[in-house]
Design a protein that fits this description.
This protein has 13 helices and ten strands. By secondary structure, it is α+β, with helices and mostly antiparallel strands. It folds into three domains: 79 residues, Winged helix-like DNA-binding domain superfamily/Winged helix DNA-binding domain (Arc Repressor Mutant, subunit A, Orthogonal Bundle), CATH 1.10.10; 150 residues, Beta-Lactamase, CATH 3.30.450.40; 93 residues, Enolase-like, domain 1 (2-Layer Sandwich). The strands form three sheets. Strands 7-3-10-9-8 form a five-stranded antiparallel β-sheet, with helices on both faces. A hairpin with an 8-residue loop joins strand 1 and strand 2. Helix 8 packs antiparallel against helix 9.
Length: 343
């Protein structure tokens, strides 16, 4: 019985690996050649019939060959996969692109691009939630009319520029005084809390607000409010054009729309935030119909014990898992190291 189970696993492993490599239905003679004659084509046909009965492989259309099902891929990934460590050249490329002197936003964009480049699939990286952003320094510069340029230095080194519109025109001197006040009293405070704390402080102060505090209130309310920002960065969608042959052009269009709107992708990646290490969703396991013909390999990234987000590769179920999984794991670790605050 054990020998028969081993034989079935050998056949499934050979079939999945050959299908991933060639993209063509695999016949018993091909598997016999791969297994170097350790079993006859007739024996392998019997084993393939058993695997088909278990829902691990199926025959597309009228082809004599077989291809893996999502269940077959799952068994292969969980128990039969032999990982291939990333090539030194690829490791060096990731390290060169994800260096600590970049801003967090630049690192997120680079990680998405590098995942896409090195896997030839779509690379996705969640942007860290901005409610974790703390003020390090702020400057205000007057522009034409009632507009003000806000220069925010957040956390360790991230710089954001925002343009706000105020109720009246402020002089450079007024804005400088407001910036000095905020930097002195609120350095290290989360952006979303600054405005609320200023308003609370004014309520506690029974004295009438002077002109400085009126300026601080207005510029802070505009500068530190919620900002429309992308919640994830996607690169390499065009790498998936080949999937049109598998699921049809219409299905590919729906997938591209999912990349555009990102809502379902974010929900799926949010579910991976608390995961330990690499997570793999194959076909319908994601719970999102648009990804029925896809697999997603994801890993959380962060600093120390704090998870900041998730990065992932999305591609066809016929992806080289033995290469993609280590690449996702490596990129998450190097991104985490690059985001670590310098001492």
């Amino acid at each position: 019985m054990r020998r028969r189970r081993n034989r079935a696993e050998e056949v499934l492993k050979a079939l999945v690996e050959r299908y991933i490599a060639d993209g063509e239905p695999v016949g018993s003679k091909t598997i016999a050649d791969v297994m170097a004659g350790s079993a006859s084509p007739a024996t392998i046909r019997n084993v393939m019939a058993e695997l088909e009965g278990r829902g691990l492989i199926h025959s597309p259309h009228t082809s004599a060959g077989r291809v893996p099902t999502a269940l077959g891929y799952r068994l292969f990934v969980d128990t039969l996969l032999t990982m291939a460590p990333p090539e030194d050249a690829k490791v060096d490329k990731v390290r060169r692109r994800l260096v600590p002197d970049k801003t967090p936003q630049e690192l997120i964009e680079s990680a998405s691009e590098i995942l896409s480049d090195l896997t030839a699939m779509a690379g996705i990286v969640m942007v860290p939630k901005q409610d974790r952003a703390s003020l390090r320094q702020v400057e205000f510069l007057p522009l034409e009319g009632n507009r003000v340029l806000v220069i925010l230095v957040i956390n360790d080194r991230e710089v954001q520029n925002r343009i706000i519109t105020t109720e009246r025109r402020y002089s450079e001197s007024e804005l400088q005084q407001a910036a000095n006040y905020l930097n002195r009293h609120y350095m290290g405070t989360e952006l979303v809390a600054i405005r609320d704390r200023i308003v609370a402080a004014m309520k506690d102060d029974k004295t009438r607000m002077d002109s400085l505090m009126q300026t601080v209130i207005e510029v802070a309310s505009h500068s530190f409010g919620p900002q429309e920002q992308p919640e994830c960065v996607v690169s390499g969608q065009s790498n998936l054009l080949g999937m049109a042959d598998q699921g049809g052009v219409d299905r590919l269009k729906v997938l591209f729309e999912a990349f555009q709107h990102k809502r379902d992708l974010l929900h799926l990646m949010d579910s991976c935030v608390s995961a330990q290490g690499v997570q793999i969703f194959i076909g319908q396991e994601s719970g999102y119909k648009v990804l029925d013909n896809c697999s997603m390999v994801s890993s959380p990234y962060g600093v120390g014990d704090q998870v900041l987000g998730v990065l992932a590769v999305i591609g066809p179920t016929r992806m080289p898992y033995q290469q993609v999984i280590p690449m996702v794991d490596l990129t998450a670790k190097i991104l985490s190291a690059a985001l670590k605050p310098s001492r």
